[in-house]
Amino acid sequence: MLTSLLLLGGGAPAALPAAPLEDLGSRWGTEARERAYWRLDRLPIPEGVVLEAGAFCVLPDGRMAAGTRHGDVLLLSGIDDPVAEPTVTVFASGLDEIFGLSPLPGGLLVTQSCEVTRVVDVDGDGAADHYDALSNRWGYENYHEYAFGTEPDAAGNVHVALGLSASYHSEALFRGWVLEVAPDGTTTPIASGLRSPGGIGRDEHDQLFYIESQGPWNSSCSLKAITRDSFHGHPVSYNWYPFAPNLGEAPLQPESGTRLVDEAARIAELTPYAVIFPYIRMGRSIMGFAADSTGGDFGPFQGQLFLGDFSLSVVLRATTEQVDGVWQGACYPFREGLSTGLLDVCFTPGGSLLAGGTNRGWPVRGTAPFALERLTWTGAMPFEVERVTITPDGFRVAFTRPVDRGIAGEPGRYRLSTFTHPYHAGYGGPEVDQQELKVERVDVAEDGLSAVLHLDRLVKGHCHELDLDLVAEDGEPLLHRHAYYTVNAIPTDSSR
């Protein structure tokens, strides 16, 4: 069985020390306060069960399914019990590195490294006895060639994000591409230029995104919007355009050592990252993600994306918006202290966030070889940045509780700076072209639930770091004072 998870980005560092995340350059260090708002329960796993979950889904009967690194599909009961002691049964086995699951009548649709497979229990005994390949229209010949699959969209299509061969090459058909698999198995290539995806899915706007890992042509992890005919930055997969006649000729060759914003203006298909996750400060190898569809059961961040990070064993969140046809948005710290490297997260029927993974194959902060953990909102409302959105001359910052209006109105309480990365063929890259921004005026809403920051400028193509020295009406400081907004387009509509 494969044990390497080198897709998880970040070069070839030494093992991470067992030190506070603040010592690693993070802006976290808030776990003691986070516990008051989101309780973390490590769920017991039956003895003898190796549950290195790479994918989760909810079944129609309220149970959950987990697909594992070892190629098993496990059914989990009792996940939402107040004191959970889940029962685990094996539904299917013999598959390979599962990174996509969704329910089917009598079974599951499984995305594994080599294919999308319908796995069905025909005789009704609780275990699969029929395995049928829906699509295997891509190559698979290297240990590193992972495949991540979505749940079916409204038309029944599954979208599959394919990682490169050995992290650097595209030696098998359509490696580094996104494929669309129709209900009848028809498979259509729709996007190229991926390096090492860590997850694929939809946000609150029903837009398809994938997570990209740091590496060649990607200086940091990022969230990228997938549209038909889009190119996502890594040109090594251009060799498969002759096998995708629906997309026409390959895009222009990008120039190494430039800036992505400049190359995107020259190469029509090149899609800029919607959200940059500053390296280490906001994760190191981000993996599966899920949109909060709990209707408020998980807290004040309905619709937002929650993402797991493998190396730092933390959960992040992100928000997205479209400006002038371009996707962009922000990321925020959420919860640290998980026990293993996270490969996937999923919301449970009861409104908790289930997380799982492994610490094999790459340096991981969490020491458990695998774990099944549940984050549950305690009902207490934190003072937190709810989301950041862009305005023509700055940002609107929304809060989960009213801010102290007097303090929030002081421009000196805000520090804003920007950076970008080199767009180049090298592995990773530094933060460059840093700029300090001036807050010229702050307009605080009467209800204290938002503040509009008027800046001296915004910098297109840069990640904007917001450091907010604010307190709530009762004096409580922000749970997390940093947010990071990626500006691809600056709106002109003054009503924003």
Number of domains: 2
The shape is globular
Query: Using only CA atoms, what is the Rg?
Result: 22 Å
Stretches where pLDDT is under 50 for at least 5 consecutive residues are: 1-26
Model description:
This protein has about 500 residues and is mainly β. It has 2 domains: about 35-375, Neuraminidase; about 385-485, Immunoglobulin-like. Helix content is about 5%, strand content about 40%. The chain contains 3 helices and 33 strands. The strands form 7 sheets. An 8-stranded antiparallel β-sheet has the order 19-20-21-22-33-32-28-29, with no helix packed on it. A 5-stranded mixed β-sheet has the order 10-11-12-13-17, with no helix packed on it. It has a 4-stranded antiparallel β-sheet with strand order 1-25-24-23, with no helix packed on it. The chain starts with about 30 loop residues before the first helix and ends in a 10-residue tail after the last strand. Residues about 1-25 have low confidence and may be disordered.
Key attributes of the depicted protein:
single chain, Immunoglobulin-like, mainly beta, 8-stranded antiparallel sheet, 5-stranded mixed sheet, 33 strands, 3 helices, 2 domains, globular, Neuraminidase, disordered N terminus, 496 residues, 38% strand
Note the topology.
Layout: H1 31-34, E1 38-42, E2 53-58, E3 64-68, E4 73-77, E5 87-92, E6 101-104, E7 107-111, E8 116-120, E9 130-135, E10 147-149, E11 158-162, E12 178-181, E13 187-192, E14 197-202, E15 208-212, E16 221-225, E17 230-231, H2 260-266, E18 275-277, E19 286-291, E20 305-309, E21 314-323, E22 326-335, E23 342-347, E24 353-358, E25 370-377, E26 385-391, E27 394-399, H3 405-408, E28 414-420, E29 432-437, E30 439-444, E31 450-455, E32 463-468, E33 482-486
Parallel strand pairs: 13-17
Antiparallel strand pairs: 1-25, 2-3, 3-4, 4-5, 6-7, 7-8, 8-9, 10-11, 11-12, 12-13, 14-15, 15-16, 16-18, 19-20, 20-21, 21-22, 22-33, 23-24, 24-25, 26-27, 27-31, 28-29, 28-32, 30-31, 32-33
